[in-house]
Design brief:
The chain is an alpha+beta fold. Helices cover about 30% and strands about 20% of the residues. The radius of gyration is 19 Å and the shape is globular.
Length: about 325
Amino acid sequence: MVITNSPLKDQLQETGYVVAKGILSENLDLEPVRKEYKNVLNQLAKKWHAEQKIQSTYEALPISKQLVKILSDYPDAPYYEDLDITLPKTSHQTKKPDQIQDKTRMHTGPAIFNLLTSPRLLDVVEEFIGPEIYSNPVQHVRIKPPINALPKHVKEHTRGSGLVTGTQWHQDQGVVLSEADNTEMLTVWIPITKATTENGCLVVANKSHTNGLSLHCMRSEKRPQWKGIEIPPEYIKENKIPLEMQPGDVLFMTKFTKHSSLENNTNDIRWSFDLRYQPIGQPTGRPYFPGFVARSRKNPESELKDHKEWRKLWMDAKE
């Protein structure tokens, strides 16, 4: 099936972003991810409790409240690596000593693989990029605790990265290698909890995708607290639109859409995934990390169906 007339694609080309309401299934897509992550956090909590770093495992609490309680006891709790769905960037990109070691961890469970390959999600992705769909390895979980639950040094180290605090203004094309300059990369952002202006939803610059890649700057003397690269906010001239979303909604953006996210000023977490998809055969911009064929109408036997094979791809990349 080749879609020649898609209102969603028309809107993406017009504004640079589309919020598709109620795409994902609570029972089939979202709740399995929540349960899988709860199990991971429970195991971490047991370890930290045995090490006397937290007063309790807080297992009876939902994951959002559990993580906040853990951080109140153990502000430096290194939970993020165990929950993310990628490895750290490698040294030839960051120009730093290699961050990937034998002990480096990431999450590769079946529920998140099922989310990556959800037919409900891929049906809509197909409307944008066609039926030959490749899962790009630029992907993250974003579990953003309340900003007041983070110690000062964590806020300073991660501010602007979007992993646990707000995200600076950027375009997703600005964080991949130049091999992907002509790749039709689609950004897919999925909230697992409600995303609101209070807890740190995304903000897009309306119709900011039409002039290609903007200049991205490293941290400066004026903004030393920001991590990594950014488009200085004074250069964002377009109308800035906060996107409040519900679980089940999915945000689609072009690789040139300028966006950022707010900080979490509530007493609960804001949890989301951001994924990338592209047509099969185009460069990913991170050639040292593994992508896979998520859907192929021409060659369905090439689709990756087994989360264990997906995990093996990542473990082989780590080695």
